[in-house]
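Input (structure):
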């Protein structure tokens, strides 16, 4: 790892650590009007930092500043920006909307549950997991069907799907809650289809048998069916 890459990791770590501390401070000491905002900041910073930490455990040879997933895609950044605009606009125009703490609690529950599911999936797959869809099978690459993968074929996506929606429910963002649901479903529908094409190429009949027994875990998403 060269110096530039190391510095990129350091400043991202400092940023996320500072955001985590700020989120906890907002939750603990600021007006209850900003309770959900404090939760949101903490949840977001923890997600991105934990992606890096878990990657450092399961695939240290692939560890880079990209492992934080902070710049996942332009669409991801735009979606985050839109959610912030909705939050502050509605807080200004309809402050009572942001005081539905039981709704925020449901969102927090989805985020925590989604985080647990995703990280469990990453640790279960271990070196077989990658943030990118592989187009070539590596020598050590095995089909993981045990643990959480015996319940659904794509638990890391399941976790991220519900985590994503949970962030908007937590902020009491009605518009973005619906928009995130639609956008996340569309993204994972395409992602699962594309990934299963490669998995069928890698594992053939073994993956077909796995498909027949275990669902994707995502609502109304079935993946690539060779039939």
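Output (sequence):
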């Amino acid at each position: 790892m060269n110096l530039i890459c190391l510095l990129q990791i350091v400043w991202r770590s400092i940023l996320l650590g500072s955001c985590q501390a700020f989120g906890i401070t907002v939750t603990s000491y600021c007006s209850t009007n900003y309770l959900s905002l404090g939760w949101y900041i903490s949840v977001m910073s923890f997600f991105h930092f934990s992606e890096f930490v878990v990657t450092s455990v399961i695939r240290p040879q692939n560890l880079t500043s990209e492992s934080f997933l902070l710049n996942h895609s332009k669409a991801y950044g735009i979606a985050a920006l839109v959610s912030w605009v909705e939050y502050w606009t509605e807080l200004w125009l309809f402050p009572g909307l942001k005081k539905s703490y039981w709704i925020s609690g449901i969102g927090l529950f989805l985020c925590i549950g989604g985080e647990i599911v995703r990280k469990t999936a990453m640790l279960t797959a271990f070196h077989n997991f990658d943030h990118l869809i592989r187009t070539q099978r590596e020598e050590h690459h095995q089909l993981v069907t045990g643990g959480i993968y015996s319940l659904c074929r794509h638990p890391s996506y399941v976790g991220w799907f519900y985590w994503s929606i949970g962030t908007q429910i937590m902020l009491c963002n009605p518009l973005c809650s619906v928009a995130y649901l639609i956008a996340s479903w569309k993204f994972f529908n395409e992602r699962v289809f594309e990934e299963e094409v490669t998995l069928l190429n890698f594992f053939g009949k073994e993956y077909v048998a796995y498909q027949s027994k275990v669902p994707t875990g995502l609502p109304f998403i079935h993946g690539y069916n060779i039939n």
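Notes: Residues 68-213 form a domain with the Four Helix Bundle (Hemerythrin (Met), subunit A) fold (CATH 1.20.120.1630). The first helix runs from residue 3 to 29.
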